[in-house]
Amino acid sequence: MFKRFSLIAMAVVLMAALALAGCGQKEAQKTTEESDVIKIGVYEPMTGASAAGGQMTVEGIELANEMYPEVLGKKIQLVIVDNKTDKTEAANAVARLIEKDKVSVIIGSYGSSLSMSGGQVAKDAGVPVVGCSPTNPLVTLDNDYYFRVCFIDPFQGKVMAKYAYETLKAKTAAIIMDISNDYSVGLSNFFKKAFIEYTGDEKSIVAEMNYKTGDQDFTAQLTTIKELKPDVVFAPGNYGESALLIKQARELGIDSKFLGGDTWEAPEFIEIGGDAVEGVAFSTHYTEEAPVTEVSEEFLNAYKNKYGGKEANAFAALGFDAYLVARDAIERAGSADPKAIRDALSQTKDFKGATGIITLDENGDANKSAVIKKVEGGKFVFVSVVEPE
User: Fold this and answer.
1) Using CA atoms, how far apart are residues 109 and 45, in angstroms rounded to an integer?
2) Residue 378 and residue 61: Cα distance in Å, rounded?
3) Within a 10 A sphere around the Cβ of 31, how many other Cβ atoms?
4) Full pLDDT tens readout for the chain, 389 residues
């Protein structure tokens, strides 16, 4: 009886050992497989108020990944996480990409507020991030692990102030900003400073008013605008609230010209605003009417092939560029080590992207031209290119 029990016990031990060996083999196999890929994390708003912007950006990133799927002889694996247009979710998304998915570099995010939330997490972990379209200067301030391929708001604000003063001959302006949105607040302040410099008149800004993301009724702000009759109204913000604000302005009989920033370039802006947004102008990063490099045309043709003739947009182009810049840094670093990639990113110079020639300065910011577009006939129409001074 004792002998029989011993045999059974030995069999159980042997089976357990074999099982453990199998697990170990699987783990070893898994490790080998993981070493054959280099992971790039992406955190973008795929849902929430900025979903359209995030989805357009991811279109460009996925396109670039399809065209350039390898680096250092290894496959590049994208790990995409939805930050839900929420600051806390953005920080959580970056933490997950670093701790769980073990990515080497991260791309994102549409929205300066979301980028700043994720930025500190990436900095603390020592993992570099390449931003696509976060234009607020604070995104890269005191964060030597954050870079971006877009221009920044001091330039964007000046571009629109110059357009208002020189092209539209505006002498007065009102500002309506989303105070819960760092992008809107920052860009409004830079527009204000530049517009006063152009006009030479401290009183040329006749009003500054606020709202918050999610607001639906702008009657109080617009009633003041109607009384003051400014030549232009600068109202950068999420495309949804901005389109609704302009629609209500026209319903109140306000005929001032409305100006905004790059977030307006989303099909939903025209869908919500309808005829009311005809004639509004905004600054953006890319136009197919004025390709800057051979990569611009390469992107444009590939985008139309992949997305069935759909018109290419600035955010897809920036996502495309962010992926290529990250891949280029991995290649120059000769390693998937985040610190080595960060060091290579900081040396990025004269990189030919779809949106222009990208050189990252000492702050990790790209010094690039801006494009002005307006809404005409229910479409975004190219107006001009403005070079940095």
Assistant:
1) 7
2) 27
3) 10
4) 444 444 444 444 444 444 444 443 444 444 444 579 999 999 999 999 899 999 999 999 999 999 999 999 999 999 999 999 999 999 999 999 999 999 999 999 999 999 999 999 999 999 999 999 999 999 999 999 999 999 999 999 999 999 999 999 999 999 999 999 989 999 999 999 999 999 999 999 999 999 999 999 999 999 999 999 999 999 999 999 999 999 999 999 999 999 999 999 999 999 999 999 999 999 999 888 888 889 999 999 999 999 987 888 999 999 999 999 999 999 999 999 999 999 999 999 999 999 999 999 999 999 888 999 999 999 999 999 888 77
